[in-house]
Write a structure and sequence with these properties.
The structure is a single chain. With about 300 residues, the protein is mostly beta strands. The chain has two domains: about 1-160, Lipocalin (Beta Barrel); about 160-295, Lipoxygenase-1 (Sandwich). Helices cover about 5% and strands about 55% of the residues. It is built from two helices and 19 strands. The protein has helices at about 1-10, 145-155; strands at about 25-30, 40-50, 55-60, 65-75, 80-95, 100-115, 115-125, 130-135, 140-145, 160, 185-195, 200-205, 215-220, 220-230, 235-240, 245-255, 265-270, 275-280, 285-295. The protein is globular.
Length: about 300
């Protein structure tokens, strides 16, 4: 389960097809939820009809204890397809007693790849019983066929890393000394970013020629991901900050320099709705360092 959860969080940059593509029919897929939700992964299907607008049903299920079917309506926003479930159209609501279904607002883009058709994007939502209670959001991938979905899952099976939880301290720590050398290199500060979320995600992607650059990623000198190959397909790393640590050091250590030194990549830090884009360069003398300053709520 965890391996499948990890790979489903990755969705590549999309090249939209023409916006009025007919999406009528059944779609097979997966839907994820960021850490902190009831479950990180569900099976997900759509049954869509399209004329001027779109209408149909969504169907989410998890093994034999979650089954949720909700009516939806939709429309095109330029290249994006927006599908909005309705509280008034909940048709099946089978969940554990302490769970509540989310009413989802789904935004996907159509693309075609190797004769497979996909809808790919993200969702936000709210508690079925309380519209003011926001659900933890996630991502969506759907294919016209089960075979197409299986191919996507297979091709992206190594694209996402969920970092092992780090130990959270009991006592507040306001500052950590990061001046010492790291693996015989000098940490070089690239930027400092203020973040408000404890659950963060970084995306690593090559922004020049793909030349087999490989990095390892460290948070506060603890390993997050080892030997990550940088390519045009983004690698995602999910991790959680210690709320007691105000300043966090993110290091991108060059395991090699690729075919064209130095080791270069584009780093995106995903902090809720905020996205910070940073260009990274590391070599065998200097390791790129990004500092994350936590500005969210402190634990009581």
């Amino acid at each position: 389960m965890k391996t499948l959860v990890c790979l489903l969080i990755l969705f590549t940059s999309l090249t939209p097809a023409f916006s009025q593509r007919n999406v009528s029919g059944k779609w097979f897929g997966k839907i994820t939820q960021q850490p902190g939700g009831y479950s990180e992964l569900y099976d997900f299907e759509l049954e869509l009809n399209q004329k001027k607008n779109i209408w149909g049903d969504s169907y989410a299920y998890l093994e034999n204890y979650v089954e949720i079917k909700i009516g939806l309506s939709g429309y095109f926003e330029n290249d994006t397809i927006r599908l909005i479930e309705s509280r008034d159209w909940v048709k099946i609501d089978k969940v554990p007693w302490n769970w509540v279904a989310c009413i989802k607002d789904i935004k996907v883009v159509y693309r075609k790849e190797n004769n497979n058709e996909y809808l790919e994007g993200s969702w936000t939502g709210f508690n079925k019983d309380d519209p003011n209670d926001k659900c933890i959001p996630g991502r969506v991938i759907l294919s016209r066929t089960v075979a197409g979905l299986d191919q996507f899952l297979h091709e992206n099976r190594d694209s996402v890393i969920t970092a092992a939880p780090l130990t959270i301290s009991d006592n507040p720590v306001t500052e950590i000394n990061f001046d010492s050398p790291f693996l015989a290199t000098e940490p070089r500060k690239v930027t400092e970013i203020s973040v408000t979320s404890l659950n963060l995600q970084i995306q690593l992607i090559d922004y020049l020629k793909v030349d087999n650059d490989t990095v390892s990623v460290y948070l506060n000198r603890n390993i997050l991901a080892k030997n990550v190959r940088i390519s045009k397909r983004a690698t995602l790393i999910n991790f959680k900050l210690d709320p007691n640590t105000e300043l966090n050091e993110l290091l991108l250590y060059a395991e090699n320099l690729g075919e064209i030194p130095p080791n270069t990549s584009q780093l995106l830090v995903i902090d809720g709705d905020q996205i910070h884009r940073i260009m990274i360069s590391s070599d065998k003398q200097k390791t790129a360092a990004v500092y994350l300053k936590y500005k969210g709520k402190k634990p009581r």
